[in-house]
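To: structure subgroup
Subject: Chain for Friday's discussion

All,

I'm putting the inputs and outputs inline so they're searchable in the archive.
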Amino acid sequence: MAIAYIIKYEGNNATFVWKHPAEDFNCLTQLIVHESQEAVFFMNGQAQDVFGPGRYTLETQNIPKIGKLLNRATGDRTPFHCEVYFVNKTEQMCIKWGTDSRVQYVEPTYGFPISIGASGEMTLRAEDSLKLLVKLVGTEAFLGQQQLTSYFRAFLMTKVKTYIASVIKAQKIDIFEIDEQLQPLSEALKGLLRGDFADYGIRLERFFVMNIVKPDGEPMYEKFKSLHFRQYADIAEAKLQQTVGVINAQTDAQKTVIASQALATKRAQEGYTYQQERGFDVASEVARNEAVGQFTNMGVGLGTMAGVGGAVAGMVGGVMTGAVDGAMQEPPKPAANTACPKCGALLPAGARFCLICGEQVAEKSAGAICPDCGKPVPTGAKFCPECGHRFAAVCPKCGKEIPAGAKFCMECGEKL
C-alpha cells in the first residue's frame, strides 16, 4: 500500500526559500501552499509547475506536464522522485545595509572634496520564484535574510556608493543640510537599485538611508562648516537687530504719546491750553530781554501778549498796554539850550553834569531830539524809534556803552 505524504512549509518568516526534505512521493501526496507562498515542483532537475495558495493532491491532472511519464513509470501507485521548493513571498523587513568604505565625491555646493559613509535598512520580497531559484538558489536547500544579504553585499556596496555620489551631485544636495534630504535621497536610490534586484527575482519594496557619516574633525570640512553656519547666523543677527530697532522706535513713540497725554491732562487740570503756555513763555523771555524797554521790542511784546487769553493773559496784556501807551505819549520839549554853558559841549538828554569839563548844568527834560530825523526820543532810549539812530557808542576796552561825544569811558576810564 502506498504511503501518503503531506508536503507543507515548515520554515519561518525570515526565510526566502525553503526546500522540503522529502523527495519520494506518490499520487496520494497532499501539497499545502499558504497564502503568502508559492511552491515550485521540480522533477529530474527541471522546474515543472508553480503552485499558488491552496491544497493540492499530486495527481496527473494536477501535474499535466509529467502526467504521461508518471503514468507509465508508476501506474499512479508507486512512488516517484521529485523536489518541492517553497518560496516565501512576504516582505522581509529590517534588512540592514551599510557602505564598507567612505564614498568619495566633490561637494556640489562649496566644491571641496569630501568622503562620507552611509547606512540604513531595506525591505525585500521574492517576486519571481523561478528566477530566484534558478539564478540565485540553485541546489541549495535554504536561503535566508543573512545569506541573501551576503550574496548581494559586494554588488550592493558597489552600486550604492556609485549611486549616492551621482544622486548628491545631480540634486546638488548640500552636505551640511543632507539630513533634511534623507527621504528624497532614499527614494532616488531605491529607484536606481530596483532593477539590480529584479534581475534575481527580488523586488526592492523599500529602501531607507538612515544615517550619513560625515568627516567631523577634518580641517577642510570644519572650515566650510563654519562658513556655512556663519552666513545663517549673520542673517539671523541682522534680522534680530532690525526687529529690536523697530521695537525701540515704537517704544520711544509710545513714550512720547504718554508724555504728551500726561502734559495735556496737567494743563486741563490747571485750566490753561498749550497756546496760553507758549504765550507765558514768550512773555517771560521778553521780560528778560535787555531791550525790553525799547519801543520796538515793546511793540513785539504787545503783539505777542495780545494772543494770550484768560485772566493771566489779560492782566499781563493790560500792564504791557499801559507801558506802551506811556511810551507813546509825546515827550516834553527839551530845553532850548542843550550845550554846556562852560565849554559849549553838547550834552546828552537828561545830563546833570558836562562830560567834558564836569560843569553842573540845569536839569533837562526827560526827552531828547534825534540828530538824524529830528523826532523826539523817549528818555533812556538807546535807538531812535523812527530811524534807528544809535545814541550811545561802545568802549573799545570794556565794551560798555558810552554817550555820544564822551572822550573818556565812564566804566574803565579809557580815553576815547
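Points worth raising on Friday:
Confidence is low (pLDDT under 50) at residues 65-69, 71-78, 295-313, 330-336.
The first strand starts at residue 6 and ends at 7.

D.
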